[in-house]
Design goal:
The chain has 229 residues and is of the alpha+beta class. It contains five helices and 18 strands. Strands 4-3-15-8-9-12 form a six-stranded mixed beta sheet. 39% of the residues are buried.
């Protein structure tokens, strides 16, 4: 096959304990999947069907590190999330079989230009400029499910400069991972390489040039991102 322009590199995430990498096909993000976060965003936390938005695969920043501060925003927010990496695809996946499709888990940041998202919401426009910008999805190395199992409980938190900003527990997810996979697979065929960010706990807020963000999930891993001054 001859490409008309240079083929872009494949976005990929390191796998813990291996020299292999996980190729990223699509990034699915679940909105408002913790009740306290739904409340802080001004929404009813009652258990309604999940909704999804997407980021481009090349928004992934494997392993975090030092990043330039995003352009065109004066209100950049952090959202720490459990990353679910799909290793085997399927459509209409039964909830009881959903975890069989998971390759592994990581710690992710759904970085959000909140000011641009807020404008989009007010005008009833799509969220892409607030959510799907360059380097908006730092992800830690993936921990294979074969090694750590399938975490359904455990602390999830984010610190800036050593100070806790977000704190919760995976058992507070409104839609657990098997439910999310089963529901999403009713609308699209999931494929190996898809990743799902399964929502963020309360405490989302701004970060600034010079800040170091440290995200953690018990039993899964850690992720650090520093925004250049």
């Amino acid at each position: 096959m001859k490409f008309a322009v240079p083929q872009p590199p494949v976005a990929a995430i390191p796998v813990e304990g291996s020299d292999a990498v996980f190729p990223v096909r699509r990034i699915w993000c679940v909105g408002r999947n913790y009740a306290d976060h739904a409340r802080e965003m001004g929404h009813d936390p009652d258990r309604e069907p999940p909704f999804f938005f997407m980021k481009p695969a090349d928004a992934v920043v494997p392993g975090g590190g030092t990043l330039p501060f995003p352009v065109q925003t004066s209100d950049l927010h952090h959202e720490v999330e459990l990353v679910v990496a799909i290793g085997r695809g399927g459509r209409d996946i039964p909830e009881g079989q959903a975890l069989e499709h998971v390759f592994g888990y990581g710690v992710g940041l759904d970085m959000t230009r909140r000011d641009l998202q807020g404008i989009a919401k007010k005008l009833q426009r799509p969220w892409e400029m607030g959510k799907a910008f360059d380097q908006s999805c730092p992800v830690s190395p993936l921990a294979p499910a074969a090694r750590i199992g399938h975490p359904a409980a455990g602390a999830i938190w984010l610190k800036i400069g050593g100070e806790i900003r977000q704190q919760g527990d995976l058992n507070q997810q409104i839609w657990r991972v098997p439910e999310t996979i089963a529901y999403l697979s009713r609308f699209v065929a999931l494929e190996a390489g898809d990743i799902i960010l399964n929502g963020t706990p309360a405490g989302v807020g701004p970060c600034h040039p010079g800040d170091t963000l440290h995200g953690h999930i018990d039993g899964v891993g850690d992720l650090k991102v520093t925004y250049a001054s």
